[in-house]
Amino acid sequence: MASIHDVARVAGVSISTVSYALSGKRSIAASTRVRVLDAVESLGYRPNAGARMLAGTRTNIFALTAPFHADTYAPAHMAFVLAVAQAAREHDYDVLLLTQDEATSGLRRVASSSLVDGIIVLDVAGDDDRVAVIRELGVPATFIGIPRDAAGLVCVDLDFEAAAALAVEKLVAAGHRSIGLIGHSPGVYARGSNFPPRFRDGFFAAAAAHGVETAFVMPERDGPSVRIALDALFAERPDMTALVLHAEESIHTAVLDVLRERGLRVPRDLSVLAACASFETDHFEPPLDTIPLVAADSCWRAVTLAIEQVSGPIEPRIELVPPRFYERGSIAPPPDRPGASPRS
Predict the structure, then answer these.
(1) What is the model's pTM?
(2) Where would you tag: which of 82, 113, 255, 270 has the fewest CB atoms within 10 A of its CB?
(3) Sign (positive/negative) of CA torsion 53, 59, 60, 63?
(4) For residue range 89-127, what is the model confidence (pLDDT) as tens digits?
């Protein structure tokens, strides 16, 4: 199926010029318009949702591609789905949810049938098959997340690298020089999800810049796996005085349970910071200092950027939401004698 990119290439013009030629929203030379229309005819280009929008006809529906995987953490996933839907409704848009694991066929189907005005892409992988499809379709689209190859795309996300740096800075400011990181389950990294490696790599970079010793583990979501992971952290870093948790809520709960069983008090014996948590952390015992991942921040901006594209092409961009820190009392200076508390 020919795309608007193909039309632009054959006509020897930019994508925006093709858009203007099809919509009539701007005056262009008659010869240029003829070249564009000739290219449309020769390629058999069928105006999809993007082209129809430029012609002034809208469906007021966005497709939200948010596939579920075996290791998808449903509470966080659905928080983002809901935030997109709420933002869309504020702009009189509805959302068509595409949840199948193989999302590319769904994108082609809704675009070719002109069901939607644009596409919002959620749960972005570093190497995401949907990137090529979006480029091929030539429809307005916003990614909530950043693939490795983001050229020509419109993306918005929390600045996970800056969030990791902020976590390290807060702990270093309290005097910590040996910090452990507990990440998501191994399957999330193996699947290529874009944000866990961004946070992990940002954490290592910030720790190195501050001369901080680190260790990193990826437990499964069950209690025994978390217990083994903590053992591994303390074995590698017996002088560890702080933990950063970049993981699901169940792992947070399990970590605090194990620490409590071992007589480790937060923050007296071990400081703990919840990083990029999509859930509240004030219900834990004790409440945890947090750098939250607020779904509404990126989702509302993603919807706004999608609507801007409905009105015409915009410049490709990556917009990063600055992280924020909230103190709950779970960070304190390290104990006088790190390693003196019982840890097994």
Answers:
(1) 0.80
(2) 113
(3) negative
(4) 999 999 998 876 556 777 887 777 677 899 999 999 999
